[in-house]
Structures are given as structure tokens and as C-alpha cells.
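Quick note —
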Amino acid sequence: MTEDVIEHWQARVRDAASRKAPMRIRGGGTKDFYGEALVGDILDTRELSGVIDYDPTELVITARAGTPLAEIEQVMAQRGQMLAFEPPHFGQNATIGGAIAAGLSGPRRPYAGAARDIVLGVRVLDGQGTDLTFGGRGMKNVAGFDLSRAMAGAMGTLGILLELSLKCLPLPRTETTLVLELTAADAIRRMNEWSAKPLPISGTCHHAGRLHVRLSGAAPAIESAARAIGGSRIEDATPFWQSVREHTLPALADARELWRLSVRATAPHVDLPGEQMIEWGGALRWIAFTAAADAARLRAWAAEHGGHATLFRSAQKRAGVFHPLAAPIGDIHRRLKSTFDPAGVLNRGRLYPEV
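Predicted structure written out below.
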């Protein structure tokens, strides 16, 4: 059955390539809002679903791309393990392939790794219908350019994900969350001070004058860190961290435009006419606007502080979703696209209009 589906997809891709007709690769559709315009006939990846292999002792899980993300997390949780990058779902229909293709990571990302860091191997169909495999199912490092990790964050523009092998991590033995009343500037300063110390921090979030700090690990280490950090404790902070990961906080969910600024953790707080949430020890700034934002100003500020600005969620994408690429990086993007998808049919323009 699986191979029949893949053969059918190969025929569809080859037909689309011959006609230069765009195809829209889609899982559960929970991230349709993200990226540039959606064009082309839909190829629903949920036709390929299910865990292929899972060996908790090897810390590796292999699954088909259309497998529900919730199913993957449940299977792993039953064996005391998790996906380290804490992927956002943005809806109950999220798939593991969509999570990797979008390349989005949750609060645990700076402390446990990004989406691309856990990808060990992939099986994909390229834009000519060729069945390709990169990487493997082991933890051994790969020499040379790791094409399996290039699929993370590519938004389906390089290939249709069929199967993925991912690294797992043990669930923390203990977790607790501390809350401190701080201004944004003071929160950034404190988070940077903590980053230089061996503290078991697994999540930070400043919003509305309060800094939440999640600690994960062995109980003695958590108790020691809690004394050093201070603040008050939350008994059950799971709903809070889920709201941060899933953007269900009203300020983010109700924004007309939501911008995502990835900058140096030491970048100062910038006073803008929008509500802000700061994550990743200061390195991730979410800014929610009730009116159209000054895109040029945001991107100039982010570039000045070593990063980039993304128009993460908006009905109008007049400013372009992703930060303009430097010429050498843009050239690499175009070369990869022309190699994997010479006819330009896979998720055409989803990252950049010219890719």
C-alpha cells in the first residue's frame, strides 16, 4: 500500500513537471498561514502515515511524513522520551512531516536543539519524481553536506517528505517553573546572566511584565537553580508553556500582524507600538501589532542586531514573509531549488517568490 501511494505520487510529480504546473504539498494544513502564497493542486501527505520503527534504546524513531504529530509524541511519551525541539502544532491535524518542513521550534529550542538538529535521515521525492534517501537511522555523523537536514525549514520546496528518522531525548525527570516580576530590559539582562552559568533552564518567556523560567532535570539541580534564580513557583505550568508554544495567548492569537525577530540574545529591548513576548533567553522576540507594522524598520533593527525578521502571521503579506536574503545565500537557495526541482513545481514560491 505504501509503495503504491509513492508510485502514484511519482506519476503526479512527473506529470506536473512536464506541464510546469505547481503542486501544493500539504499535511494537516495547520501551518497554511505560514510562508508566501499557497498555489497549485494539493498533494495530501496524510496518505502516508504510521510509525515504521522505534527503538527507545537507540533514541531513534522513524515514521512516515503524514503521521500525526500528536501520535508521534504519544508513542514516545509512553517510553519516557520526547522530541527535543518541542514543535508547535497550531492545530490537532499537525503532522510530523509538516513540523520538520516548517522547521519551527518551541520554547526548548535553545537548550535542546532545533528541528534540523534532530533529523538523522529522510526519504523524499524530488521535483522529477525521483525517490531519494539521505542520511540514515543511526546517530553516526554524516561527512559532507547533510542534505537530510536541508529539508528542515525548506517548506517542501526541495522535495516531498516520505519518511523521517529523528533523534529522541529522554523526558526530564523533574520540571518546575519560576515567575519573576521584571521589565523587559531587566528580563533580558537576567537571562543573559543565567546563560553563563550551568543552570538547567529549558524555557524562558517574558510577557506582560512577568518572566517565566522553566527548569528541567534532576531534582537536586532544580532546587539549587531555583534558589539562585528566585521568584515564585507555579504548581502546574504545562498549560502556560503550551500556550506559549501554540500562540494561544490573546496578544499573539488576536494580532493583525505577528512578527518573529531572531536576534542576538544580548540585543536591547526595543520599544515599538506592539505587544511583545521574549523567548529563547532573549534571542527570540515576538511582536504583535494591531495595525500594519513598519516592515523596513523591523528588518533593519533585526539585521543591526545580528538576525532577521519574519512576518509570521498576517492576512496581508505585502512586505514579504521572510527577511531578504544576502546575495550569496540567495544563490545557494536558487541552486538547491534548481537541482532538486528544476521545473519549479514543488510548493512554488512558498519561501520566496523567486524560489
